Predict the structure of TBCC domain-containing protein 1.
Amino acid sequence: MADDPLDSSPSASAAAAAAGGVCSAPAPALRPRREPFEYGLLPIPKLVFPEGTLTQTLSQLKERLAPGGPRVGAAALADALQIPAEQAALALGTLAAVLPAEDPELGEDGAGNADLRDLLLFIYIQSYKRLVPRAHKDSPAVADVWPSTSAFDGYLSALSPIQFVRSNSRRFMPSQADEESHQLSYLQKHMANILTLLADSVDGEGDDSMVLTMETFEHLGFLLHLSEGTPLSQAATFFANSDPDMPAAPVPAALVHDWILQHIASALDFMAEKSAAKENSNNAFDPDVTMSDAVTNTRIHSSSPTGTSAPNYPGYYRNASFVEGCSKTSVVKQASDLKGHSIKVLNCHDSVIYILAPLKYATVYGCSDTTIILGAIGKVVKVEHCERVQIIAASKRICIANCRECIFYLGVNHQPLIVGDNHKLQVSFALPSVPFSTSSDVYQYMVIRNVSILILL
């Protein structure tokens, strides 16, 4: 599914126009693709390399895999990284789930061969560290108000939904904009190394000896995309309007690096301006907000910029719908109510949530004592930091992390991936062909306690 069209940011257009001839026409804003960062990170230590040796290690991996051709299968990856075949298959399956478009040679399930460039990018970002909430300035006082002691010591579980609205808690939590800014900053820091990894070496000296073809440049779409859905190569003047029958000549990697950094910098500046404007706005959360107002204003957000509590600028809540802060209520969302291809159910308590729509991705985070029914999720469901939650879901893949006393009724195509510190889970699922096993090599990095599993064949 292509990204929904969005308005380009003024600062991005201005920066592009002033880019020293690199891009003289106004251009849509450059954004990070959330999917690889949110659904593509795996708890496999041998896929995570120290930052100081990351580029060198992946360059060596590229040299080992390149003689086999531009495509890499699970067996070759397992041999090159010295990892079990199950882990290599899991890596390719996860890669297939977070690609911007289906790769026919890799397949929807990752059973085929991956493009080496996509694989290198996928392994590179395994070193990404997610943004975590800052501690609340008065956590003990807040915890005294919430009637039950949570099994989690984290800040999120200490707040009831209404306290979450009334307090200044949002400034302590990473919002969608915070996460995108963090992802852009990561790409800004590592882009030179990423381009070096993808570039081809030609005769010459200095920066001109490393070049990128238009095809390789498009593979950066795994990590970045333009807010209007325009292909990257059509927005960059060095590749724009190229004749399909006569491919554009490769360009120096340094030129590509400058173009990307200019657009990332303008996007970060724009996000910072909007964040500052939001903090200084008089439309901040009303400390005397009623429960009905809280449910109306904070429970449900969509990708539409008309929401009462969502900033009206590109990239925020983009291509995602949100169900947030529900308490003691029921919510039914059908296809006509949702925009984009993903849903996030956040910080809901003692509620029943129905998501009855086909989507690609779904996240359930920070919920307790809630039943959540998810319709057909074509790619991945991720459940994190939930307590006493029942999940009924049909999905291709599911990842469960740091949950307690939860019950899962699943129809899945692949083994559930259970990671982190989990306690007293009950999992009942239909799995077409592969039996679930907590003792396989794929799961050797998990901490699972008191997990009851019922396999429905």
